[in-house]
Task: inverse folding
């Protein structure tokens, strides 16, 4: 290959295009299309072109120093834990963390968009993936996961499925500035953010397929209570809530009542929950102890593989709430769009609709525990578990009304291309890339 050939090959995927692809891998193709004002079809074409370029030239000459395997695994751990906490993973935060890790472990480190895209795919970190349970974790996290599974197997024997539960929070963020603007109100509601959430949804599902009432924490303390609250929802409103207080409310209002309903003669239970925002206080531990319930705290970074709610239900529920918001916020009168009480009423209605669908799908809930390996009887190999997870997500989205018409075709195409890109990188361990942050290239027109 002559020196003149390489620039021509690389010009097919400019820095601007790589930047869009990275955004799509971090936040989804639809978000990338909206952010960069490019049609989704164009972004999908760039993804296909990226695949072909890397097939032809999988090992471009590197002219700088890049993260090695140990450093990349540290960065992958960071991405996984950020997402578990609903904190942003984007170009800025990823490059900042990569640079920090690179300097601390290996000295000089230069950022490249192509390296970043390769990194996200190599470690199966695309938000498109519907097969997270099939993908390996960074070595240290994988070891922690193995120990956790051993803990579950040792303590879950002969415990009734009705007393094996998973609990998790979904935080809903509301951007008041965007909400008050004339345009883009559909972007005001998010499930990723750094500030205080507008609402917290505490979901609880049981290994026997049932779903317990969802506790909704609203911080709009001055707003009048909604006129109608679905029976599947318990609402608490106050201006300031701490993480410990949220879990204490959940323990008292949801778990204690469930345990009492099953009577004192029941054997002890197990509660699967993450280690980030639960902060098991003495009050929570007291409630769990009185209900003979053992907390099984998921190691950091493992939730996408072992948390039954994360396997299928949470991602579908978030997508459903986003879609309902985008559909209905356009019809809001300008004088009511910023009324927190009115918005809460809508959120509770949408959430109630989704909970009814999930509650009427006990087999899907049971399968979530199986695929997450919380209870014995999983399909077997990682590939089979991945197939099962993919089927479950598609089934729930169909039940929630997400896969219809054009949206169904678009979603399938996006996911298929992301999975194809991930398969391209399976087995690679070295990071290669090229540099390029020139303003003229970032500003050039793309076809």
Result:
């Amino acid at each position: 290959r002559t020196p003149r050939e390489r620039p021509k090959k690389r010009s097919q995927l400019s820095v601007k295009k790589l930047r869009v692809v990275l955004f799509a891998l971090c936040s989804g193709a639809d978000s990338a299309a909206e952010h960069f004002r490019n049609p989704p079809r164009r972004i999908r074409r760039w993804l296909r072109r990226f695949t072909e370029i890397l097939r032809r030239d999988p090992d471009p000459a590197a002219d700088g120093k890049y993260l090695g395997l140990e450093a990349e695994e540290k960065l992958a751990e960071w991405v996984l834990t950020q997402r578990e906490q609903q904190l942003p993973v984007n170009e800025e935060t990823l490059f900042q963390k990569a640079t920090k890790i690179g300097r601390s472990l290996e000295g000089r480190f230069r950022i490249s968009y192509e390296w970043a895209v390769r990194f996200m795919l190599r470690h199966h970190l695309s938000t498109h993936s519907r097969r997270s349970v099939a993908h390996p974790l960074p070595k240290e996290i994988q070891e922690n996961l193995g120990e956790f599974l051993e803990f579950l197997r040792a303590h879950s024997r002969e415990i009734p499925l009705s007393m094996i539960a998973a609990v998790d929070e979904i935080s809903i963020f509301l951007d008041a500035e965007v909400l008050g603007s004339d345009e883009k109100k559909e972007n005001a509601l998010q499930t990723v953010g750094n500030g205080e959430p507008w609402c917290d949804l505490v979901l609880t599902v049981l290994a026997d397929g049932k779903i317990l009432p969802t506790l909704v924490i609203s911080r709009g303390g001055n707003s009048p209570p909604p006129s109608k609250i679905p029976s599947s929802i318990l609402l608490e409103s106050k201006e300031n809530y701490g993480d410990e207080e949220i879990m204490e409310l959940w323990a008292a209002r949801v778990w204690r009542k469930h345990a009492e309903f099953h009577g004192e003669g029941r054997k002890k239970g197990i509660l699967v929950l993450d280690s980030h925002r639960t902060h098991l206080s003495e009050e929570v531990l007291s409630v769990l102890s009185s209900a003979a319930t053992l907390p099984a705290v998921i190691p950091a970074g493992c939730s996408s593989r072992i948390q039954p709610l994360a396997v299928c239900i949470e991602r579908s529920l978030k997508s459903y709430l986003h879609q309902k918001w985008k559909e209905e916020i356009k019809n809001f009168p300008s004088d009511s769009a910023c009324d927190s009480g009115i918005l809460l009423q809508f959120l509770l209605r949408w959430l109630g609709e989704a909970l009814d669908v999930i509650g009427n799908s006990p087999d899907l809930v049971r399968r979530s525990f199986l695929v997450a390996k919380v209870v014995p009887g999983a399909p077997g190999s990682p590939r089979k578990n991945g197939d099962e997870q993919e089927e479950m997500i598609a089934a729930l989205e169909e039940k929630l009304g997400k896969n219809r018409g054009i949206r169904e075709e678009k979603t399938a195409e996006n996911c298929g291309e992301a999975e194809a890109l991930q398969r391209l990188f399976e087995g690679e361990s070295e990071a290669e890339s090229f540099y390029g942050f020139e303003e003229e290239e970032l500003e050039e027109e793309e076809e």
